[in-house]
Design brief:
The structure holds two protein chains of two kinds. Chain A is an all-alpha fold. Helices cover 74% and strands 3% of the residues of chain A. The chains are: A mainly alpha, B mainly alpha.
Amino acid sequence: MRDLFLAALTKRAETGALVSLLAVILIFVVFGGADMGTMLGAASWVNFAANLGIVAIPVGLLMIAGELDISIGAMIPAGSMTVSILSGYYGLPIGVGILGALALGVFVGLVNGLLTVRTTVPSLIITLATLVAMQGIVLSASVLLTGKASVPLAAPDWAKTIFGTLISGSFQNIILWWLGLSTVAWGFVHHSRYGNWLYAMGGDKVSARNAGIPTAKMTIWLFVLSATAASFVGMCGAILFNSAQVSGGMNYIFNAIVSVVVGGVLLTGGFGSITGIFIGTLTFAIVSQGIYFTQIDRNWSSLIIGATLLLAVLMNNRFRTLALEVAPRAKRPAKA
Amino acid sequence: MTPASPAPSRAGSGSGNGLGALIRRPEAGSLFGLLAVFVLFTAVSGLVFVSPAGFASWLNVAAEIGIVAIPIGLLMIAGELDLSIGAVIPAASLTFAISVGHYGLPEILGIAAALGVGLLVGVVNATLVLRTGLPSLIVTIGTMFAVMGLTLGLSVMLTGSTSTNVVPGAFWKAIMGDFVGGMFQVTIFWWIGFAAVMAYLLHAKPFGNWIYAMGGDKISARNAGIPTDRLTLQLFMLSGGAAAFVGIGQAMVYQSAQVQGGQAFIFNSIMCVVIGGVLLTGGFGSVVGIVLGTITFSMVNQGIYFTGFDPNFGSVIIGALLLLAVLMNDTFRQLALSYSRKKD
């Protein structure tokens, strides 16, 4: 009975993530004297988590499928600049700007996806190339077209209400988008055949293709999703803050990967869950922003993130071994 | 296989005809890329690009990246990655500056301490990778964050500031942080020396063959008696140590060290290595290729300022070059494999 319970618990990708989250909160309360009441009510880390989470989910899905996308670091400023240049500088309707930003995401995602599918080059390298190229294109296009590196944008009220406003003064409404995307992704991954395909792809791509799964199409769509999600985050930021900045975005690359991995996703693919990614993102946000609510010097936050990441992957590793060991014997041939 | 030639592929070493032999070399693609970039930039910016000042501008940048790129490339040939170098560079730089500038220790102790930091991070990386079997990408992201946090926290704790000034003695400044002829950093000579030593080790010693074997197939390599664990440890220590060396050099040149900086080296060094023809999946690449890739990268990054284009346009060229390089290597490798004799 104990074995069955342990098996059920350790088999879930999010168990490790939950343990990490609780451990971080415990450390903050015990050693940092954190005021949990104030912290839970604070918007800073929730906003941070929402922006990061929208990017982390598709990055996590790609990782489950055995791919990586680091071009998101350039797509966030790209989305932000596109909407600002189209609607702010050229005065086009905001709808055009929004569509433009999302279309750019779709385009870059297609490039990443097609190159990954058509060549044998690892997606880390392909998206590294699109990352650098997009950084250059965004910066030179903005200087070329507007003469500035920062472009103001005045979005109409309806656009602000949907994409960029503050609820009760401090919570960005992108939080709702994050919750929505997480729910949709959860249904998609855990309750549809696409989810099974995803795990099969990450487990063994060749077998998955031989079993009739359209792996190429899936890979391309996943890349489109991640680039578009990143562009969406940038666009919402521009609408909320009334201007686009070309800097920033690079931090998202490592932050998203760390969130996803703390959330229990296996970098080599085939293992992970949306709940885990969600919890991993929360953990990351609490460590990097929640530290302001503790007496721990905030300079140590990177150290805590690094330690959390290493401990989380070690724990997840251990859990997977444990899950395999205590799994019901009947399903496996007896060991010699 | 002959000792002097790189032993790039697992597909045997049949000599073949001239074309086959040329494109089978890992640095073929990067050589073409370098020539193309050099001709393009010389044509656009004129004689200024080929003047000593023009050469110094990209050589200084290339030397710093190059010293890190070589061990990163070797790790990649062996099938591993190291992202923690981005945190080791400022960590070593500050270790040196704090020991010498803040506590007034002799330079030699500061250098030893800073190199020690780099080697230690390498040992930690290698131990974690070997003990847990986790991908080195994740392990080194973890140590990168941890070292970043430690650097910031300890620097503020010890000195109360995120940057420390240091004035190295004339001798140390001359050998590690000076400009030869007023414009060429001495780092360039360290880079050339380091590249020569590593090229010898990789292409003429068992060490090199072992690395290729490891990247090709780690389990078979271990079964064949290659000490893969010891090699992994040495390679991670080498990359940590090289990053620390660059950090010390920076502290000597700028006479100050700060917590930020170094992050750019992570992706820049990977790009140099990939443009240089190394395969991320391991088993293929050469030191000459890495050096050529580094030169190409730096030439684009710095040469763009001579051309009158918007400097940001340099990134677009690098991105395109990177894509071209990997696609070309992809095709070249297929060609190379089809040119070489089948194993019997």
